[in-house]
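Researcher: Please predict.
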Amino acid sequence: MAAKLQTLIDLHNSCLEKEKYMRCKQLALMRERNLYLEKCKRIEEVGNKYNWEGEGGELLGQVHSALFSQTSPQEEDMQQQPSSGAEPENDLPLE
């Protein structure tokens, strides 16, 4: 009985340590996200200041597209690649 209780106590302590580690990791990721969003906000402010045109018009236009695009970069890459016309192979037997 004492061995089982000690095992449970050790497991509980291990869970507490892992929870603390995950919380620290979560806070670090949230901070990184906030820094990234702040940079995006600054870029948006510069773009709005120049009405997304001006000296770097083409670059500002590309930045605007990147910031406000509803598709991911991977989806955009897939849309730009020429289609081979072939359907994907299916390894499942047809019934």
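Model: Residues 2-65 form one domain.
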